[in-house]
Design brief:
- This protein is mostly helical and 140 residues long.
- It folds into two domains: 9-66; 75-136.
- It is 50% helix and 8% strand.
- The chain has four helices and three strands.
- The protein has helices spanning 12-49, 75-85, 92-101, 111-121, and strands at 90-91, 126-130, 133-136.
- Strands 1-3-2 form a three-stranded antiparallel beta sheet.
- Strand 2 (126-130) and strand 3 form a beta hairpin.
- Helix 3 (92-101) crosses helix 4.
- The longest helix has 38 residues, at 12-49.
- The N and C termini lie far apart (65 Å).
Amino acid sequence: MARPKTGSNLSITQLESMLNTRLAEVQHLHKQHARLSHELLQIERKITALGGKAGGRKGIGTRFASGRVRNEKSLVEMLNQVLSASIEPMRVGDIVDAVLKGGYQTSSDNFRGIVNQTLIKERRRFVSAGRGLYSVKAKK
């Protein structure tokens, strides 16, 4: 819809009509965006389940414009979930695989390093059970 020229004399009814038309279009676009985002999330989950890297191109799916991925759970929560489910301490590589299989998405080229740093940094939740082995810290 073309914008009216500055200084044009539009009636209140005409202005309300223009506003309602734009609001309806915005609502339609929000619904379309939500539907497409949901579809892309499902596709990315299938790609991840097949061992591929979700979001092969930046700016699609559940990514922000910067390329950063949104996850339902934080990395710390995912690590806690994976390690809590394991009876024995796990190696970092196995932890990484389990986190990715659990649906966590990342665009990092060095996700293993990030997981390792997070395990070291979060000493109140995780404990090193040997070189490269981690488990959940026992609750007192």
